[in-house]
Specification:
Helix content of chain A: 25-40%
Mean pLDDT of chain B: 90
Distance between the termini of chain B: 48 Å
Strand order of the largest sheet of chain A: 6-7-8-3-9-10-12-11
Strand order of the largest sheet of chain B: 6-7-8-3-9-10-12-11
Number of strands of chain B: 12
Strand content of chain A: 15-25%
Structural class of chain B: alpha/beta
Structural class of chain A: alpha/beta
Radius of gyration of chain A: 21 Å
Number of strands of chain A: 12
Helix content of chain B: 25-40%
Strand content of chain B: 15-25%
Low-confidence stretches of chain A: none
Oligomer: heterodimer
Largest sheet of chain A: 8 strands, mixed
Order of helices and strands of chain B: EEEHEEHEHHHHHEHEHEEHHEE
Low-confidence stretches of chain B: 1-5, 322-334
């Protein structure tokens, strides 16, 4: 509990998660590497954005960070301590200080309970404060996310999507967590409401000094909230660095394609990199660099040799032979 | 080209209204689509952008009351005999939706499903169907087209299924394709592919496109002209570039300000406060007034009509002065 301030809030070191999947009725089991040895750090008061397409393993990475799943390789440290096995008492105690926000607030809320009661629930479970004060605490939490007391007395279906997500955030904040893992928290919301929730998350972080792992496919939203960004492709981090630097001048061709594919008003005439092919199947991972079949900068070496995530001169990390060659790294020395 | 009357607009919608159970959802839509044009319809959930085209094509449930006029090259479609509508739908105007999986029959081979449309609208049979289906699959960029004819929807990815749906829509050689959030369920790099495909097909066939989306970026990159909808009305129309460079209506301005930028300085987002009004609880005057930063007494007394605010652009707001040009928002109080 008394971690030194220089210990990162959350550290995942070489974490891997594999699943067995059977192909066809009688097919043999194939091993799927959903997360394939990733290392990431979330600092206190900072946000790490995790970007990738479906099947990239970004949501699994979030579940590993919270200890919902135990890694097959590597380990996850929270405040310098190993995250205990899931569903144990020690894990539950630790989980009070690490909370999750999902995409669908209606699915995360109990339809038969008033919102204020749901915000109070974690206070009861973790015995926070005096029982008689908890209603007032729940009201204060709702107020802190911009919900009125009378809205707290409503049921989830009586609130709009944005209000529901506020309620979910209030509930997540009840246990005064140090870490918030947000998995596509605004993807289901309309643009004008999205901005309200994004601002709320930024304010909360400034006020409470939370560390955040922000998982999303939307680069614009990720840039808005993140200090650092990590890009995942087929279970691996392929580029990581300062959010503005990485999205303004991507080093990895995949990040470049993602940035170029992100639609922005008024960017009609710009040249766009259209990736050919489809996100590869994790069950049939290409040899060499997993991205090479879709890469516009592919070289012979990319087809056989898997690139390692290494620092570039500007401080970011990239796993790409071409990017390192261009930056003047003759050969990866590790 | 089946166009008989070159004089009339391809599609002219006038005063289109839709009510569900006596509650008005669409309050008189005026919209024209010229041959070969790409028109974007943008707005938040519930603004009526999809209902407009479902109503125009007679695809709403019987309980919906539809009024006004929808003309295809001068021929009225509302209340037209079923035989005519059958010919129009798919043959003249095709429509595709967000989720390709639910637009395809899971137990029929893809080639057969596209073949159905060819038999129906083009009167092809036998070998001709298979050859033409293969050509369409190639046109929409499905790799290994000949073998994919015999595949089932579950064997293809979401992006490939959306290509099949587009192939099916193209089978009738329509003059207009209405695409309702065609890329919302797809990953960013696949979204870019599909938008590129729609643009290419439009260029090659001269087909007109109506793109319905909540995503201002998607609309901006694909369309010549944009209509912004709010609470069942069109509140602004303009050329794509003009609209995003200098939005005239405070709602459009708000939407753009709420969008996190992908490049340049990071700034705090300006959300539009509050939420979209319920159709049964609309404010007395301008529907946007309760959320509008420029609201004044006159906004609550009458509904502002869509008026010219410059060359080829209109806005429904008392603050947009027609004489001062679109970008000069002057307070013109009635």
């Amino acid at each position: 509990m008394s971690a030194a301030m220089d210990t990162p809030l959350l550290q995942a070191r070489g974490v891997a998660r594999r699943y067995a999947m059977r192909q066809g009725l009688l097919g043999r089991a194939v091993e799927i590497r959903a997360v394939d040895g990733i290392t990431l750090t979330v600092e206190r008061g900072r946000t790490l954005g995790l970007v990738g397409e479906s099947g990239s393993g970004k949501s699994t990475a979030g579940r590993l960070a919270l200890g919902f799943e135990t890694p097959d390789d590597g380990d996850v440290l929270f405040n310098g301590e190993a995250v205990p096995r899931p569903r144990t008492l020690a894990w539950r105690q630790m989980r009070a200080r690490m909370q999750m926000i999902y995409q669908d607030p209606l699915g995360a809320l109990d339809r038969r309970l008033q919102v204020a009661d749901q915000v109070r629930e974690p206070l009861d479970i973790h015995r926070l404060g005096d029982a008689k004060d908890r209603d007032a605490m729940a009201r204060a939490l709702l107020q802190s996310v911009g919900l009125r007391a009378d809205q707290g007395e409503r049921y989830p279906h009586e609130l709009s999507g944005g209000q529901r997500q506020r309620a979910v955030i209030a509930r997540a904040l009840a246990t005064k967590p140090d870490l918030l893992v947000c998995d596509e928290p605004v993807s289901a919301l309309d643009v004008s409401i999205q901005a309200q929730v994004i601002n709320l998350l930024v304010d909360i972080q400034q006020e409470l000094g939370l560390g955040m792992l922000f998982i999303s496919h939307d680069l614009k939203v990720v840039r808005q909230v993140s200090h650092r960004v990590a890009v995942m492709y087929l279970g691996r981090i392929i580029e990581e660095g300062d959010a503005d630097l990485l999205l303004a001048s991507p080093a990895h061709p995949y990040t470049e394609a993602l940035v170029s594919a992100s639609p922005a008003p008024g960017r009609r005439a710009r040249p766009r990199i259209i990736l050919s092919g489809y996100p590869p199947n994790p069950a049939a991972r290409p040899a060499g660099c997993a991205f090479h079949p879709r890469c516009h900068a592919v070289q012979a070496r990319c087809r056989v040799e898997s690139p390692v995530l290494l620092p570039l001169p500007d401080g970011r990390l990239a796993a790409c032979h071409v990017a390192h060659d261009q930056a003047g790294h003759p050969k990866a020395v590790h | 080209m089946k166009a008989a009357f070159q004089s009339a607009s391809l599609v002219a919608i006038k005063g289109l209204t839709v009510s569900f159970d006596g509650v008005r959802a669409l309050h008189g839509i005026d919209l024209t689509v010229e041959r070969g044009e790409a028109v974007g319809l943008v707005g938040e959930s519930g603004c009526g952008k999809s209902v407009t085209w479902l109503a125009a094509l007679g695809l709403l449930p019987k309980s919906a009351q539809v009024g006004g006029s929808v003309r295809l090259e001068g021929h009225e479609l509302l209340g037209a005999p079923p035989a005519l509508l059958d010919e129009v739908r798919g043959g003249r105007i095709a429509m595709i939706f967000q989720d390709p999986a639910s637009a395809l029959n899971p137990v029929l081979r893809l080639g057969r499903q596209v073949g159905e449309a060819l038999a129906l609208h083009r009167g092809l049979s036998g070998r001709a169907i298979r050859a033409e289906t293969k050509r369409l699959f190639e046109l929409v960029g499905i790799p290994d087209a000949a073998r994919r004819l015999d595949a089932y929807p579950h064997e293809l990815s979401g992006g490939q299924n959306q290509r099949v749906v587009i192939a099916m829509a193209l089978a009738g050689e329509p003059d207009l394709l209405v695409a309702d959030e065609p890329t919302t369920a797809l990953d960013a790099t696949i979204q870019a592919q599909i938008l590129e495909l729609l643009t290419t097909i439009r260029r090659e066939t001269g087909m007109a496109l109506v793109l319905i989306s909540h995503d201002l970026g998607v609309i901006s990159e694909t369309c010549d002209r944009v209509c912004v909808m709010y609470a069942g009305r069109i509140i602004e129309t303009a050329g794509s570039e003009e609209l995003f460079a200098q939005p005239a209506h405070p709602y459009t301005q708000g939407l753009l300000a709420a969008l996190p930028p992908l490049e340049g300085d990071r700034r705090r987002l300006d959300p539009i406060e509050g939420g979209v009004p319920e159709p049964w609880n609309l404010p007395p005057g301008c529907a946007f007034a309760p959320r509008c930063p420029r609201r004044e007494a006159a906004c609550d007394t009458g509904i502002p009509p869509l008026a010219d605010v410059g060359t080829d652009r209109t806005a429904a707001c008392i603050h947009t002065d027609p004489t001062a040009g679109a970008h000069h928002l002057q307070a013109v109080c009635a």
